[in-house]
């Protein structure tokens, strides 16, 4: 059996299962604050980022890991493994997939790169799905085809916590920011084909939550949802409240709760919360 190393990026926060897997490796995203580069999850944790965003009103940006960073890891892994499978956030939102693929051309070990077209913990659920198929005897191509079908049937809705931060990071135009601030809307962002889209602009948190849970309830009642993920910035209590609501109404659905990493928090702010699920036949 091939010895496979699994590589991903820090936009997904590893759960206990993946953290304990010695064959999983994380390449950190880069967060840039006042011209200084920090590695997400290494020398900058979300808590510190949110503190500085709140107290210092910093302007932060992000960058994908360099090709050299991937190459360095892949060269080290080829000493101990027969193959590398890299699973990354959407290529429509970051150059990480491209950097990983470029590095793959610079090493002798086979490297297969899977573009999830997702972010954060849902990206890691895709990694787990690939692991499952390959562990159960599927070829790399078979596993990729099955997992692509699974990944393409997701729904992800994120309630943006800070228009200020989205504006400062350059993801919101001046006109959008001014209009949003005047109307006090709470934009719900969806991920479709790897891109961010504004699904709707409810006027308050209560209406936004109701809309998100209406969409989730529709999928669950259709019998398509086996598990979901609640994603959050620094609002862990709200995330747990959402989990309780889901567990009480839909006890058959496995609910994960996962924090968003610094590289995502830069753009969305600490009050961000969302939910993601896969519609399975």
From TrEMBL:
The keyword Transferase does not apply. Transmembrane segments: none annotated. InterPro entries: DegV, DegV_C, DegV_domain_contain. The keyword Cell membrane does not apply. GO terms for molecular function: lipid binding. Keywords: Lipid-binding. This is DegV family protein. The lineage of its organism: Bacteria, Bacillati, Bacillota, Bacilli, Bacillales.
């Amino acid at each position: 059996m091939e010895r496979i190393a699994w590589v991903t990026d820090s936009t997904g926060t590893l759960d206990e299962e993946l953290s304990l897997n010695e064959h999983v490796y994380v390449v950190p995203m880069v967060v840039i604050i006042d011209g200084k580069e920090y590695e997400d999850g290494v020398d900058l944790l979300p808590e510190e980022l949110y503190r500085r965003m709140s107290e210092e009103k910093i302007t932060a940006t992000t960058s994908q890991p360099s090709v050299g960073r991937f190459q360095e890891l892949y060269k080290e892994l080829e000493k101990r493994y027969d193959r590398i499978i890299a699973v990354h956030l959407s290529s429509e939102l970051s150059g990480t997939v491209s950097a990983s693929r470029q590095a793959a051309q610079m090493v002798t070990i086979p490297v297969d790169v899977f573009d999830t077209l997702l972010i954060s913990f849902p990206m890691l659920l895709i990694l787990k799905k690939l692991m499952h198929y390959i562990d159960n005897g599927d070829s790399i191509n078979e596993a990729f085809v099955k997992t692509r079908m699974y990944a393409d049937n997701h729904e992800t809705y994120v309630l943006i916590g800070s228009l200020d931060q989205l504006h400062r990071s350059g993801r919101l135009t001046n006109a959008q920011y001014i209009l949003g601030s005047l109307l006090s809307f709470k934009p719900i962002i969806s991920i479709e084909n790897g891109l961010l889209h504004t699904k709707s602009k409810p006027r308050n948190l209560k209406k936004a939550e109701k809309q998100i849970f209406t969409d989730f309830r529709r999928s669950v009642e259709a019998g398509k949802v086996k598990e979901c993920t609640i994603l959050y910035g620094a609002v862990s209590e709200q995330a747990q409240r959402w989990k309780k609501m889901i567990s009480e109404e839909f006890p058959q659905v496995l609910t994960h709760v996962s924090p968003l990493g610094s590289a995502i928090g830069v753009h969305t702010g600490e009050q961000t919360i969302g939910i993601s699920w896969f519609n399975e036949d």
